Amino acid sequence: MTFRQHMERVAVRTLAEFPREAGAGIYVVTFRIDSVDQDPRFPYVAIGYNTEAEVARLPAEPSPPEAWEARWSYAYFPPSGLEGCRVVGHDPERDPVGAALHRREAMAQGLWYDDEDELSEHERDERGERLDQQFHGLCVDLARRLHADGRIVETFGRALPVVLYDMFDPDEMFALTRAANPAELVAEFLAEDPEGR
User: Fold this and answer.
1) What is the C-alpha to C-alpha distance for residues 149 and 172, in angstroms, rounded to an integer?
2) Are strands 26-35 and 162-166 parallel, antiparallel or unpaired?
3) Are 147 and 182 within 8 A, CB to CB?
């Protein structure tokens, strides 16, 4: 099995495990892209969701967010959207299978390095950047596949957007989300894109 296949299997299983009572109110699937200890060798994605009930609750807060922020900003997502329901990727503790597959493939590509390897800081940064870019691309492809294979519609009875965000590069969420979804599903989300593309 490849790392990509593993991620897809876990993603499909995770969608099916979202709580049934939240199902009708779920309006977005969330992919929080992160890495263990901010190390690009250990990327993972936390797969989650947000609900209409959660958005409806926010205006009652002492300092309520603007409507777009309440609906689309990860700063206001509940644990189901921020921490997700399941982690998949190179997280040895939460996804040992994914960790082994990712490491094996990174080694085969000549991108893996151990802390004791004699590499310059530039070489480490270069490999880390390539690993990071590959993982972002894989997450975009994963969301596209969930749409193309009909997994989202099959699970929720309707098409939902998948919002991708990287905690360490917040502005990239617009480009990632645009690339991962049919345009009509993310028009409202992209209304606040500072690039306005």
Assistant:
1) 25
2) parallel
3) yes
**Regions in the chain scoring below 70 on pLDDT:** 196-197
> At residue 41, what is the residue type?
R
The closest of 73, 88, 74, 75 to 36, measured between CA atoms, is 88
Question: Which is it for strands 43-51 and 86-89: parallel, antiparallel or unpaired?
Answer: antiparallel
Residue with tokens 């947000």: 50
184 by DSSP, 3-state: which? helix
pLDDT of residue 91: 97
Q: Helix 96-108 and helix 3-17: axis angle, to 10°? A: 150
One-letter amino acid at 91 equals D
Three-state secondary-structure class, residue 103:
helix
Q: pLDDT (tens digit, 9 = 90+) per residue, 91-140?
A: 999 999 999 999 999 999 999 999 888 889 899 999 999 999 999 999 99
Angle between helices 121-148 and 3-17 (to 10 degrees): 50
Question: Which pTM does this prediction carry?
Answer: 0.94
